[in-house]
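User: Could you check the structure of this?
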Amino acid sequence: MAALVASACRAAGIAPTTSPGLPVGATSAPAEQSAAVVGQLRLTITESAYGSVAALTVPGASCSVDVAAATVQFGEPPPATLTAQVAPASGIVRWTYSAPRAPSSNGLHWVTCRSGADSAQVSKGFAVVERPPIVASGLSIHVIAGDPPRTVERTDPSLVPLRDAALAKMKATLATEWKRATRALGSAQLVDESADIAIYLVPARGTSVHRKGGDGSQDIVIYVSDPQFGPETTENLVATALHELGHIWCCYGPEAASDGHWLQLIRDPGLFGVDKYGLMNHPVTCEIFGTVVSCPNRFSDREMRALGFATFPAPAADPCVTQGLALTAQVTSVEAELQALKVQLDVDRTKLGQLQSQIHSLEAQYPNGMPPAQYTQYQSLIAQYNQLLRDSNARIDAYNGLADRDRALVAQMNALLCDWS
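Assistant: Sure, the predicted structure tokens are below.
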């Protein structure tokens, strides 16, 4: 029997809250002054867009930028300040910065430059245009070892090594696992900025969650320790990440509960073991085979449709599952032969008993010699008994050989590091 490890995962919708910053959805740009001259210092913002800003000033001037943008409920905000630069001989200074997904709104760049005793500050607005919806066929992910916004769980220093191991595991495998989970139709790219969605890894005990705010912003928070089961394995945390990413699109409608999970477990015809019900069930449950942790990492047919894939191939065969199914078929065949032989051996045993009883009866009836007719019968019974005994012994040898083969096949099945049920 395999040990089970479960991670409680859920989807959550959060009502809008009042937050500082520029108003979300504002239709007019903030007041701005994009050019200034102070003494010998000239300063003009020449470009201002969400994610980039450029200014023209005197060579040698030291310039910095403050970014004022609407505050989002969840996910990454753009940086509030940009690294200072010294204007080159051309006088042009340029910055690019992370521009994560955000609702439509307006922002403002404040550029401050200093040259000698002179200092000037100018500003210029920019528009944040909401991007098209995230698609499972191509999404970008930023995995962050940091505190997510609007959380209250206290971090545990003893869980930091597990958090760091999970971070390394996700960076190494999450893109590949997403492709496998979506039957090679999905693509995920791990990036350090401007991601479609941020995954926060938190060294604390809590319930992992996909959060979506009233302003349309969203993120994923994964706690490395579960309230019920304790610290997770890195394999379980990757499976949890796949599950929570699935919540971007799944699961809604009459088949789903309000928390984004299926109301009923439905066996997928092409999936087996830990994957047989797909990925979007609660909780995410892994099985342990010796030192191997096997976690669900394949979306079911109905989940593929929920993710936006209209057509998709059957799930790729897992070699371990394929071997397990083949061994199961062999065991079933061998055990059917064993059962048939057992029935025949029971018949043999009964018949041998009957023949032996008849032989002993004649011997008891004629202790001093049998008449010719009875002796002929006696000899026939002995011949029948000896022939049946030889046949039965051959069947016993066949039975024992099949039993040995059955035990060997079962041992191979038990040694497999997967569940093929």
